[in-house]
């Protein structure tokens, strides 16, 4: 029907496979691939059959050969939809074959490049001029350029194959084992070829797939323990690969993924996996310079190995115990955190400590102090146990005692110097039964020296109040005074030591040396106290006012307590809000950075792909131009030699010296060929006319002979038909007679047959009635059970609604009670404020009356003073006059 209306015809799978093989044999591989791809992606092919598996194998061969990265995903997706309900193992075989072919091609390309770098014809021959010119115009070396041209395209194709396969397998629970094996193979690919960028993308892809699967698990009621266990095993392989590639950020994210999966699965992983987990944690925390977590990881690894690894050698246990002890001793005796931080920083530190405790396998309760969960003191207590002290060598025990218990400041560092020299050795290789390959004790020497100097200074501060710098430098043979000074500054900064260095006199002063900031810190409060005391001494308040002021101060404090509580609560809310905003801003910044990084990677990949396409297109254009010129020259030479041959001349090998161009030669040859063609057509027309006449005459002579042959054949066919009809009738008569005899013989068995059939039908009828009754009974039971379930559900819903109403009423009553309490508290506060104001007003009135009274007394005294003065002056005047006269 489609062909009648101009549409494409329906291609059967068998025909498409055969057509593809024919096209491949003639060199048209792209057309062969397209034919198979159209069949696989067609909507008409929805029922699986074995022929589709063969088509997929052929499709994969052609796809890998042509390096078509977009074809496999579409084909595998349609094939998955086709066979997932019928034969899911076929999809598994096809995916395994796809990955095998892609891996073989990548390995072959790598081997080809290796052979090209080794197979040099003359080792003494210098570089060719072409190679020298290419090295001048390109920054890449020869091997890098060869890898980019031959190996990198196959690596990119193999990486796309892994990514496509994981995307196809992620939604089918029946293929989870294959999904895990493909993920492990992808990890191995990234690890073998050092593909760090692809490893990060692979981790993000697996993390995204895991998130989708966990969402589906939460929505379903089925058990997914095996699936989660498979994901846990995959994440352990991811963790090992991340540590091998030294991608420590991805390694820590893998650790967090493992913790999340263990919480989801509620089942402990295998012992070997946990040993690998703690071994990787030792590497991660060693790189992050977090000595406390590093020591705890070593402690967990040692305890785990000693408890569950029965094949571990005593030498391996001794080396691991030494690592635990040195890692513990390498921790600084003080914490490098700012103790004057706000509540938000304290909450963040608590959250981080609890999260690290869970990662390291320590249970933390809400009542525990998070600062004591992972601390140096707890580690020292655990290290002094018999299981570790009994496993370390004697010299490690002596080192432990020198740095923890002994008090000998004058000889401490001198005794420790030989230990540090012995620790500066090559890493100790462990056996295959150990979870770690080697133990490197030399990494702890630097921190041990710093701890030794701190212990020396601590002991000296308990004995001396001052010490010469030269004496201190002589006590520490393994460090210069500059290094010692850095250690002192760091310890004083975090309040572990109280030391002041006097470079002018070359001395150190131990003890409580207050800094300028400590002196100024309480200056204003001390000044206020002294001024208040001075005011009290100059103008002491009356005894009655002292009690009133005390009561007024108490009332004021009570009135302001609620406001201060509200302000503190508001401040806490603001701090929490700022913390959330800061976390949100950090998260948005990380997402923006990740998006920008991904966009840059995509743009770089697009630019690289565009450059490669342009280079390939330019090379193809140059090749086609060159081939066209060569073909034109070859055709012109053939045409010229053909003309010379017709003239009886010898052929030439070059057109040098020929004045005619190719177009002129072609035009001349075409004119001659046109004349020859016209002559040939005339001769053919004449020959055709003669042939027509001959054929007409032959047929006229043949007609009588054909009529005679036809009549003879008719007679032979009639005789043969009559003979066959007679033989058929005779055979039919004989068979009829035999059937009549057989019928008569079997007729005697009809009563027995009827009785047997009646017995069977009666038994089956009874069985049918019993089954029918049972089915009715089960149907009634199901109906009753469903009715009970519906009744229970209705009762539960009614109870839930009643509980919600009760809860809502309780909340309303609590809210009303709170509002009433708030109103009552406000009224009481207002009443207290009013009383305080009244008392203050009465106090002011009394003070005003006292001041008015004092003022009136002073005014009365002032009015009495002038008359007395006038009387005294009059008496003096009269006495003076008597003397004068």
Q: How would you portray this structure in words?
A:
By secondary structure, the chain is mainly alpha-helical. Among the domains are: 270-452, Serine Threonine Protein Phosphatase 5, Tetratricopeptide repeat; 523-640. The protein has 28 helices and five strands. Helix 10 packs antiparallel against helix 11, helix 13 runs antiparallel to helix 14 and helix 21 crosses helix 23 (481-493). The protein is elongated and about 185 Å long. The model is unreliable at 1-10, 118-127, 132-142, 513-519 and 871-885 (pLDDT under 50). Keywords: Coiled coil, Cytoplasm, Initiation factor, Protein biosynthesis, RNA-binding. Residues 862-877 have a biased composition (Low complexity). Its main location: cytoplasm. One of its GO terms (cellular component) is multi-eIF complex.
Secondary structure blueprint with pairings:
Layout: H1 13-25, H2 29-41, H3 50-66, H4 71-83, H5 88-118, H6 129-137, H7 142-169, H8 176-192, H9 196-219, H10 225-244, H11 248-265, H12 271-287, H13 291-308, H14 314-329, H15 343-359, H16 370-373, H17 376-383, H18 386-389, H19 394-404, H20 412-423, E1 428-429, E2 438-439, H21 445-463, E3 466-468, H22 469-475, H23 481-493, E4 499-502, E5 507-510, H24 516-521, H25 523-538, H26 543-646, H27 662-746, H28 750-884
Helix pairs in contact: 1-2, 1-3, 2-3, 3-4, 3-5, 4-5, 4-7, 5-7, 7-8, 7-9, 8-9, 8-10, 10-11, 10-12, 11-12, 12-13, 13-14, 14-17, 19-20, 20-21, 21-23, 26-27, 26-28
């Amino acid at each position: 029907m489609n062909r009648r209306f101009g549409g494409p015809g329906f291609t059967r799978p068998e025909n498409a496979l055969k057509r593809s093989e024919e096209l491949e044999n003639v060199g048209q591989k792209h057309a062969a691939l397209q034919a198979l791809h159209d069949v696989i992606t067609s909507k008409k092919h929805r029922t699986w059959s074995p022929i589709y598996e063969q088509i997929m194998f052929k499709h994969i061969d052609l796809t890998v050969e042509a390096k078509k990265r977009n074809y496999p995903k579409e084909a595998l997706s349609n094939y998955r939809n086709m066979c997932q309900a019928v034969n899911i193992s076929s999809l598994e075989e096809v995916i395994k074959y796809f990955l095998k072919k892609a891996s073989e091609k990548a390995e072959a390309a790598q081997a080809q490049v290796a052979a090209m770098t080794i197979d040099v014809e003359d080792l003494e021959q210098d570089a060719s001029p072409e190679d020298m010119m290419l090295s001048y115009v390109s920054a890449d070396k020869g091997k890098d350029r060869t890898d980019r041209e031959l190996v990198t395209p196959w690596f990119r194709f193999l990486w796309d194959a892994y990514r496509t396969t994981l995307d196809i397998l992620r939604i089918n629970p029946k293929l989870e084992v294959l999904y895990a094996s493909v993920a492990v193979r992808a990890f191995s690919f990234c690890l073998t070829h050092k593909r760090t960028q692809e490893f990060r993308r692979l981790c993000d892809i697996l993390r995204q797939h895991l998130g989708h699967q966990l969402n589906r698990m939460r929505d379903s009621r089925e058990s997914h323990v095996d699936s989660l266990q498979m994901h846990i095993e995959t994440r352990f392989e991811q963790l090992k690969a991340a540590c091998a590639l030294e991608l420590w950020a991805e390694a820590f994210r893998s650790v967090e993924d493992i913790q999340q999966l263990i919480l989801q699965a509620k089942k402990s992983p295998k012992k070997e996996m946990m040993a690998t987990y703690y071994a990787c944690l030792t590497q991660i925390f060693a790189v992050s310079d977090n000595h406390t977590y590093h020591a705890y990881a070593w402690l967990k690894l040692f305890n785990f190995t000693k408890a569950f690894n029965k094949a571990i050698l005593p030498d391996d246990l001794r080396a691991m115990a030494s690592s635990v002890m040195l890692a513990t001793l390498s921790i600084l005796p003080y914490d490098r955190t700012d103790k004057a931080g706000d509540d938000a920083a304290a909450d963040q530190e608590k959250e981080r400590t609890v999260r690290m405790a869970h990662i390291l396998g320590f249970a933390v309760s809400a009542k525990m102090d998070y600062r004591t969960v992972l601390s140096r003191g707890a580690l020292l207590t655990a290290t002094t146990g018999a299981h570790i002290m009994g496993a370390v060598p004697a010299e490690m025990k002596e080192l432990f005692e020198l740095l923890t218990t002994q008090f000998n400041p004058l000889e401490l560092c001198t005794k420790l110097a030989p230990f540090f020299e012995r620790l500066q050795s090559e890493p100790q290789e462990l056996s295959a039964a150990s979870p770690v390959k080697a133990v490197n004790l030399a990494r702890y020497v630097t921190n041990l020296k710093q701890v030794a100097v701190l212990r020396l200074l601590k002991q000296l501060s308990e004995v001396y109040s001052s010490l010469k710098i030269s004496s201190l430098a002589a006590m520490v043979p393994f460090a210069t005074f500059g290094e010692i000074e850095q250690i002192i500054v760091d310890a004083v900064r975090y309040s572990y030591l109280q030391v002041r260095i006097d470079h002018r006199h070359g001395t150190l002063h131990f003890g409580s040396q207050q800094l300028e900031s400590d002196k100024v810190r309480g200056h204003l409060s001390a000044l206020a106290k002294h001024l208040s005391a001075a005011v009290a001494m100059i103008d002491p308040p009356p005894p009655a006012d002292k009690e009133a002021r005390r009561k007024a101060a108490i009332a004021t404090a009570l009135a302001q307590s609620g406001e201060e509580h509200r302000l503190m609560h508001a401040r806490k809310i603001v701090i929490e809000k700022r913390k959330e905003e800061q976390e949100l801003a950090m998260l948005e910044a990380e997402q923006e950075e990740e998006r920008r990084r991904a966009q840059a990677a995509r743009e770089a990949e697009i630019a690289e792909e565009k450059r490669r396409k342009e280079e390939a297109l330019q090379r193809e254009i140059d090749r086609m131009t060159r081939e066209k010129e060569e073909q034109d020259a070859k055709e012109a030479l053939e045409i010229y030699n053909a003309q010379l041959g017709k003239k009886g001349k010898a052929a030439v090998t070059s057109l040098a010296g020929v004045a005619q161009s190719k177009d002129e030669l072609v035009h001349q040859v075409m004119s001659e060929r046109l004349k020859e063609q016209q002559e040939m057509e005339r001769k053919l027309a004449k020959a055709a006319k003669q042939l027509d006449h001959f054929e007409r005459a032959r047929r006229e002579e043949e007609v009588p002979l054909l009529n005679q042959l036809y009549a003879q054949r008719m007679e032979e066919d009639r005789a043969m038909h009559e003979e066959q009809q007679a033989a058929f009738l005779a055979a039919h008569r004989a068979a009829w007679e035999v059937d009549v005899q057989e019928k008569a013989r079997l007729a005697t068995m009809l009563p027995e047959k009827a009785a047997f059939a009646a017995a069977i039908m009666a038994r089956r009828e009874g069985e049918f009635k019993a089954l029918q009754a049972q089915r009715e009974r089960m149907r009634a039971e199901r109906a009753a059970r469903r009715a009970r379930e519906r009744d229970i559900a209705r009762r539960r819903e009614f109870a839930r609604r009643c509980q919600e109403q009760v809860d809502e009423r309780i909340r309303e009553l609590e809210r009303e009670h709170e509002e009433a309490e708030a109103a009552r508290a406000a009224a009481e506060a207002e009443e207290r404020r009013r009383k305080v104001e009244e008392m203050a007003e009465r106090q002011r009135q009394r003070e005003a009356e006292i001041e008015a009274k004092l003022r009136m007394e002073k005014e009365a005294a002032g009015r009495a003073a002038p008359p007395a003065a006038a009387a005294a002056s009059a008496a003096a005047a009269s006495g003076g006059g008597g003397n004068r006269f």
